Amino acid sequence: MITVQVDLQERSYPIYIGSSLLDQGHLLVKHIVGSEVMVVTNETVAPLYLEALLKGLKDYRCAQVILPDGEQYKTLEVLGRIFDGLLKAHFSRHCTVIALGGGVIGDMAGFAAACYQRGVAYIQVPTTLLAQVDSSVGGKTAVNHPRGKNMIGAFYQPRCVLADTDTLNTLDERQLRAGVAEVIKYGLIRDAAFFVWLEEHIDELLARNPLALAQAIERSCHNKAEVVAADERESGIRAILNLGHTFGHAIETGLGYGTWLHGEAVAVGMAMAANLSRRLGWLSTPEVKRVLNLLEQAGLPRHAPREIDKARFMELMAVDKKVIDGHLRLVLLKQLGQATVTGDFRPELLEATIEDCR
Amino acid sequence: MITVQVDLQERSYPIYIGSSLLDQGHLLVKHIVGSEVMVVTNETVAPLYLEALLKGLKDYRCAQVILPDGEQYKTLEVLGRIFDGLLKAHFSRHCTVIALGGGVIGDMAGFAAACYQRGVAYIQVPTTLLAQVDSSVGGKTAVNHPRGKNMIGAFYQPRCVLADTDTLNTLDERQLRAGVAEVIKYGLIRDAAFFVWLEEHIDELLARNPLALAQAIERSCHNKAEVVAADERESGIRAILNLGHTFGHAIETGLGYGTWLHGEAVAVGMAMAANLSRRLGWLSTPEVKRVLNLLEQAGLPRHAPREIDKARFMELMAVDKKVIDGHLRLVLLKQLGQATVTGDFRPELLEATIEDCR
Fold this sequence. Notes:
homodimer; alpha/beta; Rossmann fold; three-stranded mixed β-sheet; globular; amino-acid biosynthesis (chains A, B); aromatic amino acid biosynthesis (chains A, B); nucleotide-binding (chains A, B)
């Protein structure tokens, strides 16, 4: 087992990464507050891993909420079901919420924990690659709004993250690839050596080679932990973790949540960010090609869906948390392995990129 | 104008108390973040004060959300309308929410600000006595759940509180009295001299004598600010601010939100807390009589509604944020002017109090 520490003073916590961790109840137990535990999971994950998780929690009064599976259910309305479950079980402020599932479950369970009785403890048990390398770490929780992704939420840190790599064995191909998109992101934004490693090991990752997966998860979590420790509430550098996300959120919102997977939309977004970075003279054409090649090898899309036209794309991008006073800012690449947040580009270049990448 | 400071390090803020403050736009302006301002108010308050407020905000891009008036609308569903309004106006993370209204508006607008894009600035402009002396100060925000009051919310501090005492001139009698209940609370929990002052000045308060009102608001805010500064997130002493609230919340939830005003339910709750404190040997019969007399003079109820029977009352009280591991704790009075939080009483005594006060 590997432990990566997220260093946030009194809110610091460990990320446990390894095989067979779900069976090791003692890992969770030391992070549980109180005697009441609410497991939030979904209809896909519950039959696979709920029993194993509950086995390690026999000394607690446990309850569960099982939500439908999919980004389209990450709404304020479905969030209400978690509160219903907590209150029906008469759980107090001294309870712990455990998120067992992918990014949607983690975001919703974390946000519910942030709000229930104005804040209770929670633990992330991510079961998808995307959640293990990205969404379960760093305390961003949220639900979507029909007009924008993750528009309603909280910064709220978990007590620990337990990433059992065995759970990736049941992940379907498409979900695995979506997770690889966020792994590639870390290489692009701040870890050029990792990008090269990924070019060399992408086939092993897709073949679910346990060693390659563990290495990729650890390296991703290290990168994320460092950025989050430097800027917990995204007043600056943390925004680079959103490479490809403004483009990607536009696709997710525009097509309707759940049509594309988040990681797929982010993959296209990264291709678009690379395209615009080339137009600004920061990336060379061969470098952009390397980005596109890696995405292609990972079986990820590189083109935005044609049903969202350019004007609509621009409109959707205008609803983004990085907008300041009506001015859009984007995460772009100064070079492979170095991201920057900038609003300093001519709109025509952005429009050309959108046209180019559809 | 009087200024009371709430001392919370980097989250410190002033409470401005005085006459004609709504017309003094400069007071608000220095606390507004960004160029976008969303005013959240209700159908009762909007026709009275929205125009005056907006007059001072001419340099900003302003939008407004006008909610229906009443505790029964303090729900997750109605909260969604604030998010709809913010997104429809394309407001960014650098916007400011202003709550213009009573406790319900303040709680909802504050919670919306806590969650919108994971947190934007907000300002409280309380227009009821209850909001000016209590709910607008201290950063507790929330909505209700059918099973329990204020069960979904956040600790989230405003940038300032602007209490224009002129707004109390349009407050109806019943609302004024409900506010007086929370004023009396401060005397009971930690300010015996203020309790005596209230016994002497209660008629002036009810007659809306401006000087008496200003003094009562200032003294209340001072008390609240000190307690909040000592324990922002209610890990200890802050719970004394909930004197009468566990009983009161049971009445509000049991009758259906909006049937009784919050302050009315709290008044009965304080009578019940005094009754139970007497049974524990802490208050004398004459002291309890003084509490009941003051509530009576203020025109407040002292008896719980008979339609909630004892068993149901106990059940409703079990859903309370002060419950730890299934064990109910209550704020009781060691003496007039000194509250304590305790779970150390025999259930029969609590049952006798409920029976006695119906």
